[in-house]
Amino acid sequence: MKRKLLMTASSFSHICSFHLPYLSEFKELGWEVHVACGGKYREIPCADRQFQLPLEKRYLSAANGKTLAVLHGLLREQQYDLVIVHTSLASFFTRMAEIGVKPHPRTINVVHGYLFDADTNFIKAVVLKAAEFLASPETDLILTMNCFDTRWAEKAFPGKKVRFIPGMGVDGEKYSQRGKALGRDSSNETFTLVYPAEFSKRKNQAMLIRALPLLPERVRLVLPGEGALLENCKALAKELGVEARVVFPGFVTDVGGLLAQADLAVSSSRSEGLPFNLMEAMLSGLPVVASRVKGNEDLVLDGETGFLFPYDDETAFASAVKPLLDHAERREKMGAAGRSRAEEFCLSRVLPVVMDAYLSCDPSNLSCESG
Questions:
Q1: 371 in any annotated domain
Q2: CATH number at residue 89
Q3: Residue-wise DSSP of 114-154
Q4: Residue 167: closest CA among 92, 106, 86
Q5: In a domain, 334, yes or no
Q6: Are residues 324 and 360 in the same domain?
Q7: Is the pTM of the predicted complex or chain greater than 0.85?
Q8: How far is CA 300 from CA 128, 272, 284, in A?
Q9: Residues 111 and 219 in one domain
Q10: pLDDT tens-digit profile of 97-122?
């Protein structure tokens, strides 16, 4: 009988963006692969079955009570050997749904960035940490991607296996082609900033829009992605009179094409695990200006591969961008340093590391016992 895997996430787009190579690996190893997600439905290559969850991005939403019931029924019916959970909400509800399920599946929590850090509001941090402690008994292995999360998990769960992984891996060949087939027109005086991300409070695109009036007119901002706050950001750009300088291309499959046309990658995020968008940009040879938060700090070497600025400070952001506007040689030097640093996060190097961690929790492998 085939071993069965369930992979869950808050959205199908998350699975499509980061996890298809791993689903393919499991298929090649003879596993039956199932995927369960919330959000907009998308077909998942390599999935034998996929399930739509009524998941909403609020812990106390009534829809998430239904999500819990759906997942519990699915786990009891399918009797999975291994469950791999991604993204905070899906991770929490999947693990809570495992309570009472017999036989109990081995479960790996892939932490794409805990939604708290040293600067998080006390009450919010208590609630988010409590969710992790509640789900902990259903967890066999915790995979973390940055220094803060690794240290916190090791301290909070001394009886659990915690293992660091260098992200989920980026297609190095794909992004190293920047400037060859899709190089920028050097006669174009427009200076382009790019930030591919879901439109959410955590990603904080609004700060970048607020910063545009502080930068020269020739600076434009490209914000690919979808999400709950997309329309709010469009309205803000119009309100500030910079709508002609902000491009909202929606969901983009060819992010590499956008990076090829950009001069600088930016990030305004409140927190990250190990940001995929910055790794892609660095492999493309772009310098980076990013908020000084966990995840970003783990990638960007301040002053060497780009600049870090205090979170949500549009004045500091603009001050970090200005020195790069008219210094192509400096941008190229920073971009080259960033490309060299990002090579260690290429999929060819990362995939074997992550699969080794995943397969350590194969039910036939006894090395994943908690404690």
A1: no
A2: 3.40.50.2000
A3: -S--TTS-HHHHHHHHHHHHHHGGG-SEEEE-SHHHHHHHH
A4: 86
A5: yes
A6: no
A7: yes
A8: 27, 12, 14
A9: no
A10: 999 999 999 999 999 999 999 999 99
